[in-house]
Specification:
2 copies of one chain form a homodimer. The first copy, chain A, has 20 helices and 15 strands. In chain A, the strands form 3 sheets. The first copy, chain A, has an 8-stranded parallel barrel, surrounded by 8 helices. In chain A, helix 18 packs across helix 20. The interface between A and B is large, with 127 and 127 residues.
């Protein structure tokens, strides 16, 4: 428990003008059973133990220590008291609370340093057996210390000369298997089939530079196909080309190769490279938009517990995707995978709110999912990429729920079309085009049973296909 | 579930010469209850569902997809079959298994890319409700693709002219509160008190460049104290100076400032900056040793479940600290916080094995903690930093259990000494010195009741002080 000073605010305390003066976090914890037993043995109530735990979170993430320390001359104790974080808004029932951090605890433009504080050591506390950090609300000064996305929704639309509608994109499946030459052939089919409006191709997250599919060759060949298709179809094409590498200089080299070959996007795996990589790649001003894949995020964000949205027991130690999405927008990615309604991966129904995190100018807290909202000031809205087992039968619902500023990414949902790849392209173009003509999907399928869209729906139906 | 091909090996299958040909991972999962119900409805046994899940892990992290895709000319299907990962050694009771990944799936020198595969999307699968990745065993080619630590244990000992014994170090507490000038004054006391053998001072993880304690000024002032104390005491001193920043160029600038001021160590928060930051800072060859703090790791590594070491139920989604420690050694840090026996933070009793991960030449799997071992080839052994609520009464046990190649870090356990800071220095020096003279701690305290060590023990006792 926190010692030396109190880190729990008096009931009713609120931070003064938080968007100017504080970083705020919102958490839920479970108290460790042995800590509860020990507290009871000492005659301490569970309520008091929860207060101690909330105070310890505030202490450990700001100015505290586990034992009373020297407080004489030059001890730093007066400043530690003045600058300490305070736990407040304690919800004794749900074991939720907020922490308010004065700005002098942080460097404004240093996300890695901020995390070392607000989510640094708190998950190690023995007195808690589970914890979820739902959100952080950042003050104006911190938001304004970052440039945010270089392009965002409007910037990418301008590059693609596409003022409205969603973008459609395909990741080759099998995830790994095609050679660089074969991938370029696939790109040619995607870009030129159907009515020539298929927008993009994307590398899978585990496609790097491999013996049979080298980054450099793939990059050049696929981008050459994009340029050729643009000429032929009159429509702009994009390639989400995966530069992910643990060596940032190699990522920069790869980005330059994309730029030199006329590409407009690089793809970075933002969790496996890390926050400093994302910040540094953005600051490098490569001239490319950044598409952010989020491989590995499940090991940070997932908690398959009833308490994941507040009510009921929490199981693990997690930080929500809402929290991460907020920081990736701040750091300046132009597009982020945020799950999707109907997708194969677990997202606890957060995808629609994550879209708002990425796109709202002034984000309100969600009325059910614990969250804090955010004023975005100078930071542009960005694309949400919807993916994970999506197929043409999902389009209507995905677009209804997420809106038009999304990249819908179908891998198997195109390449698994029973009539082949070109048919897969047509099915997706149809699903998109009828949506924007306001023709209901089921009506179209019924009236056009020989359409490629109908064949796709016959195979995969409407909505989620697999428990995966 | 995995489709198109089988990703589960026949019973008894083993990878051929894995240290040459495969990356191996070791995992445990829990099956989602609704997936179990659905499987039963379909007449599928839980055993078969577990096999499906294991196969899906192998598929999703290598060459699979959720639906059968085009397998004609240029489809990549033959290579996807040949290069696919295989789940094997299925333990139906404990729901544990291994996955063997052929090397052609990866770039040898790209940890961020490797993670996008082996721990990329698997934590998102809806059919599992919990997952822990215990370990990865890396093949020779991957190990040899990295330089590893520039200095390691021997290199740092050489710089410090200290051939044997542990190192002792203090992080100022309060964590934040002292000005740069006050921190330098504390450094002077630490470096010059007692018998002048106190080794080091360290920044706390959330001490960055703040309005009242700027990085540049602190760096210069503390290193000046180190140089002055070396002259006065004849003993080398170190400062673990925290360069953590989400902008890698700023980290490099700070590293240069340390080097220019005669420092030998930089401290990086390796999770909040990320794997690419660590790799890139190492590759930059700054001439400094890298001290790795691990703030935020609890949100990746912690699972307070009975099943955390195999037997019993698992609660959350996690990757073990053993796994992370292995990669940080590979990426080239020279010292890593790895918990400690008697420490305040939860570590599931793994600290001693983590020390072996960091220091063994040929690491054997642990006989209780699920693990795979590792041949380290060219990669140097590194320091383990033991910290978290440690105090002088812990020294004997910590040194007995972890050996001499450790940095013992006491913050409150020095600065909270009842007789002040100098007394705290003396107490720690005494605890260390009697250990190397083979005098039992309790015996010394009994025979020297007026020693500073005895006063420390009177306050904090022996062993863990707090449920924290």
């Amino acid at each position: 428990m926190a010692v030396q000073f109190d880190y729990v605010a008096k009931r009713g305390w609120k931070p003064n003008n938080p968007d100017e003066n504080y970083v705020i976090t919102l958490l839920k914890i479970e108290l460790d059973e042995s800590a509860v037993r020990e507290a009871k043995r000492q005659g301490k109530s569970e309520k008091k133990l929860f207060e101690d735990a909330a105070g310890t979170v505030a202490a450990e993430s700001s100015t505290g220590t586990w034992t009373k320390v020297y407080d004489g001359k030059d001890s730093g104790i007066p400043l530690a008291r003045a600058k300490r974080a305070m736990a407040y808004d304690l919800d004794y029932e749900r074991k939720m609370f907020k922490v308010a951090y004065p700005l002098d605890l942080f460097e404004m433009n240093n996300v890695s340093g901020l995390f070392a504080g607000i989510i640094g050591n708190i998950a190690g506390m023995k007195m808690v057996s589970a914890m979820r950090v739902y959100d952080a609300r950042l003050p104006r000064k911190m938001i304004e210390a970052f440039q945010g996305p270089a392009f965002g929704i409007d910037g990418v639309r301008k590059k693609l000369e596409k003022k409205e509608e969603c973008l459609v994109c395909t990741v080759p499946k099998p995830k790994i298997g095609r050679t660089d030459v074969e991938q370029a052939k696939l790109a040619r089919i995607l870009f030129n089939s159907g009515n020539g409006t298929y927008d993009g191709i994307k590398d899978d997250e585990n496609l790097l530079s491999l013996p049979f599919n080298s980054f450099d060759k793939r990059c050049k060949l696929v981008l050459a196909e994009a340029r050729a298709a643009e000429k032929k179809t009159g429509n702009k094409k994009f390639y989400l080309c995966n530069v992910t590498h643990s060596n940032i200089n190699e990522m920069l080299r790869r980005a330059k190769l994309i730029k030199d070959n006329g590409g407009i996007f690089m793809m970075i795996d933002v969790v496996t490279t890390g926050f400093a990589a994302v910040d540094s790649m953005r600051r490098a001003n490569t001239g490319l938009a950044i598409h952010a894949h989020r491989a590995m995020h499940g090991f940070i964000t997932r908690d398959n517990s009833p308490g994941v949205h507040g009510d009921g027991k929490l199981y693990g130690f997690s930080v929500s995707m809402i929290f991460l999405a907020k920081f990736f927008r701040l750091l300046g990615v132009d597009s982020l995978h945020g799950g999707s309604p109907l997708a194969k991966m677990e997202d606890y129904g957060e995808a629609i709110y994550i879209k708002d995190v990425l796109q709202a100018k002034e984000l309100k807290p969600h009325n059910k999912i614990p969250s804090l909202g955010q004023k975005w000031y100078n930071i542009k809205p960005i694309w949400m990429t919807a993916s994970g087992g999506l197929h043409p039968g999902d389009f209507e619902e995905v677009l209804d729920k997420l809106g038009d500023d999304i990249i819908i990414q179908c891998g198997g949902g195109l390449l698994g079309h029973p009539n082949g790849i070109e048919a897969g392209v047509k099915a997706i173009e149809q699903a998109r085009d009828i949506y924007y003509k306001k023709i209901p999907l089921k009506k179209f399928v019924k009236e056009n049973p020989k359409s490629e869209l109908a064949f796709a729906v016959k195979l995969w139906g409407y909505g989620p296909r697999v428990v995966y």
